[in-house]
Amino acid sequence: MATAYLVSTALMAVLAVAVVAWLMNGPTWYHYSPPARDAAGLPGPADAESGGPIGRLASQPAVQLAGFVALVVAVLVVPIVYISAPSGSQPMVGTAIAGGGGALVVGYLLYGVYVAASGRGHPRSLAVAESATVAGVLFLVAIVARLVM
Q: How confident is the model at residue 42 (pLDDT cuts 50, 70, 90)?
């Protein structure tokens, strides 16, 4: 049984390498010109305006500060919730905390891939496709980890 899992893993690895090789031979972006940036390397006024209302809101320092404070409070509150939970429900609370943290990390990674692809000049559809590819690879890694454990 374990041999079948290892063969399946090896087959998926070969498939993943083939997909990466195929993607590496994709279109090149020779005619891309980066957007205007100011002296600090931040997007210029045209970029902030093209982001829509969410982009304008996210570029405000007060909103960034509020997000950071919320993140710090969450990091401080989560261990307190885990420790103060009744002993019978600690495994359930621990699973929920791990799942929430994992979802945040995966979401951050997928959004980062999308932003990086958009920043390289790829059209929105290709940026979404690259994020979906990373999501698929993460899904395969999760399946392999589950099968091996």
A: low
pLDDT band at 97; cut points 50, 70, 90: confident
Band (48; pLDDT cuts 50, 70, 90) = very low
| Separation of alpha carbons 73 and 66, rounded Å | 11
C-alpha to C-alpha distance for 130 and 23, rounded to whole angstroms: 10
The count of residues in the chain is: 149
Q: 83-92 — which CB contacts under 8 Å span 24+ positions?
A: none
- What is the SS3 assignment for 116? helix
Cα 13 to Cα 148: distance, rounded to the nearest angstrom = 14
